[in-house]
Write a structure and sequence with these properties.
Layout: E1 3-5, E2 8-10, H1 12-38, H2 48-69
Antiparallel strand pairs: 1-2
Length: about 80
């Protein structure tokens, strides 16, 4: 199944990345709020979990963008001769 974007169809895995990023970045905002509003420095709230909630979605989106733009992948811009 594909999702239609500005540049054409994307593989399903590429469409799931932004949704996962929105969820994890929302969780990161909640962790930061708990940290500052309530002083919650528990191991499951700050530190590694907070870094993962920010960095993993950023890496997923960056890798998907690189894959779409990769020459020969059939999913990026293709130079077409003028008609």
């Amino acid at each position: 199944m594909t999702t239609r974007g500005r540049r054409g169809p994307l593989p399903r895995g590429h469409a799931d990345g932004p949704a996962a990023a929105a969820f994890l970045w929302g969780a990161a905002i909640g962790h930061v709020y708990q940290w500052f509003a309530h002083g919650d420095h528990a191991a499951g709230n700050t530190g590694g979990i907070l870094a993962n909630a920010v960095l993993i979605p950023a890496a997923m989106i960056a890798l998907a963008a690189l894959d779409v733009r990769r020459p020969g992948s059939g999913r990026g811009h293709i130079a077409r001769p003028a008609a």
